[in-house]
Amino acid sequence: MFSCFFLTLGSTTDKKWDFSSIESKFSLRTPGKPDEDTCLIVPGQETSVSQCSFNHTSKTFVVIHGWTVIGMYESWVPKLVKALYQREPHSNVIVVDWLSRSSLHYPDSAAYTKEVGEDVAKFVDWLEEQFSYSLNKVHLLGYSLGAHVAGIAGSLTTNKINRITGLDPAGPNFEYAEASVRLSPDDAVFVDVLHTFTRGSPDRSIGIQKPVGHVDIYPNGGIFQPGCNVAQALLLIAEGGLQDADQLLKCSHERSIHLFIDSLLYEEKPIMAYRCNSKEAFDKGLCLSCRKNRCNNLGYKANRVRSKRGTKMYLKTRSQMPYKVYHYQVKIHFFAKVNTTKKDQQFRLSFYGTKDESENIAISLPEISTNKTHSFLIYTEVDIGDLLIVKIQWEKGSFLDWADWWGTPEFGIQKVRVKAGETQKKLVFCSRDGFSYLKKGGGAVEFVRCLGKNSVDHDS
Ligand SMILES: *[C@@H]1O[C@H](CO)[C@@H](O)[C@H](O)[C@H]1NC(C)=O
Ligand SMILES: *[C@@H]1O[C@H](CO)[C@@H](O)[C@H](O)[C@H]1NC(C)=O
Ligand SMILES: *[C@@H]1O[C@H](CO)[C@@H](O)[C@H](O)[C@H]1NC(C)=O
Questions:
Q1: pLDDT tier for residue 453 given thresholds of 50, 70 and 90
Q2: Which pLDDT belongs to residue 329?
Q3: Which position has the higher pLDDT, 396 or 431?
Q4: Looking at the UniProt record for this protein, which Gene Ontology cellular component terms does it annotate, in alphabetical order (predicted)?
């Protein structure tokens, strides 16, 4: 089917300028009325471009919505439009209206991504040919099914579109689809993707699970997002009524958009993501390196790296905007005279820095054992500045914790090594007494910056 389309495009240009098949509408929004379709650009009608005050020297963002139950724009559309104009006041923000096809039965709407992609491709190709408007200035942003629309459009244009951002591209019907009918790295010079709701088996996941761009970021593991769990959902329904229920079902899916909006609005607080082989390795703090493009900015200011296909990037976020957190790898060697292994132990860490502090960060270690170094990830919601003091407390187990009845377990700790992801600084913290003893259920143990040449971590 696709080769057919290519042939038609290639053989006669007349056919290409047949706009009769276009059903999608292209609305150039304005900063003053980000929520209204006040001016439509009609492919083939040159006057509509000037009537809508299209700025030929500026860049253009094309926002493409996804499947909608309600047949109307969702509330994120004006928010994204507004944020784009706030960051790039002279840009052209165009919203693609394919609502009539996107509010059908899901499989039907999913199939229509092909036609809508063709519409978008014809539209930008026409802008380029008619006005010499370079596709170098075009950035498509597609959410859910809209991400695949953007991908299909990008695969059909005469010249390559500069950038496509896929915001939690839809999974059902696309997870196992060929690259030509979904978003893929070939669809633009740079393709960046946020995966925020990939819970469940691959054929059930709302968001596509596999990497489909040059940079694929999985915030909070990409499975679901903080603030979107059932308890919080019920609380919000209690407060906001049932009309928000629909919103909550999509909470994690839509978080991809709000993370992108965050990157537009909080320029001074760029959110970092880190390349990692697995979510599990990331949660151990093993992937906070920025060497060789291993870290990148999430969202608008993503660096254009062409990492090896299929690499995933991870980060943690807050549950609300601004979403940025500060990541740390903590490494501790537990000394003891006797060999012991303890499973599922709870600790609390407190970080005190030059700017702020973050106390009692709960951390659960699946296993700790004698004379082994343990590594784990900690994150703070505030920027504490340079870390000065680390405190660790080992929480009391439950009454049923039989293993602890024969005496309180205890480990000696000499040093705590900390690597900060955001600053890439590695520091070593020492016990004031050379050795400190961490007792289960006991008080917090304090570590301060080591003196002299021990203060900076040179290994690893
Ligand atoms: C068009 O955008 C450029 C920046 O790209 C800006 O300098 C110019 O003022 C804009 N023109 C209008 C009419 O807004
Ligand atoms: C752990 O290492 C320390 C120091 O190297 C040593 O004194 C101790 O005996 C070791 N513990 C065990 C159980 O082997
Ligand atoms: C502790 O275990 C290690 C490795 O399993 C062993 O080499 C060592 O001898 C043990 N130490 C004691 C004191 O049992």
A1: low
A2: 98
A3: 431
A4: catalytic complex; chylomicron; plasma membrane; very-low-density lipoprotein particle
What confidence category does residue 3 fall into, taking pLDDT thresholds of 50, 70 and 90?
very low
Active site residue 168: yes
Nearest-atom index, ligand 2, CA of 371? 1
Cβ-in-10-Å burial (0-12, 13-18, 19+) of 261 comes to buried
* Residue 403 scores a pLDDT above 70: no
> What residues form the annotated binding site for Ca(2+)?
182, 187
> How far is residue 62 CA from its own chain's centroid?
19
Residue 69 CA from chain centroid, whole number: 24
**Rounded distance between C-alpha atoms, residue 304 and residue 297, angstroms:** 10
Q: Among this protein's residues, is 455 annotated catalytic?
A: no
Task: Check if 386 is active-site.
Answer: no
**Residue whose CA is at the smallest distance from ligand 1 atom 6:** 90
Nearest CA owner, ligand 1 atom 11: 55
Give 208 Cα–ligand 3 centroid separation in angstroms: 47
Instruction: Compute the distance between CA of residue 148 and CA of residue 105 in angstroms, rounded to an integer.
Output: 17
- The counts of H helices and E strands in the chain are 12, 21
Catalytic residue among 102, 144, 256, 307: 144
pLDDT of 428-443, one tens digit each?
Answer: 999 998 899 999 999 9
pLDDT tens digits, residue range 143-191?
A: 999 999 999 999 999 999 999 999 999 999 999 999 999 999 999 999 9
Tokens of 25: 């509408």
With a 6 Å cutoff on the Cβ, whether 57 touches ligand 1 is yes
221-251 pLDDT per residue, tens:
999 999 887 766 666 667 666 555 556 678 9
Pocket test for ligand 1, best of 28, 30, 90, 131 (most atoms within 8 A of CB): 90
Ligand 1 proximity of 55 Cβ (cutoff 6 Å): yes
Could you identify the residue written with the tokens 């292209």? 26
Contacting residues for 44 by C-beta, under 8 A, at least 6 apart: 17, 19, 126
Ordered by where they begin, the domains of the chain are 25-315 (3.40.50.1820), 326-449 (2.60.60.20)
Q: Between the CA of residue 269 and those of 226, 300, 396, what are the distances in Å?
A: 19, 12, 37
Catalytic residue among 97, 125, 168, 216: 168
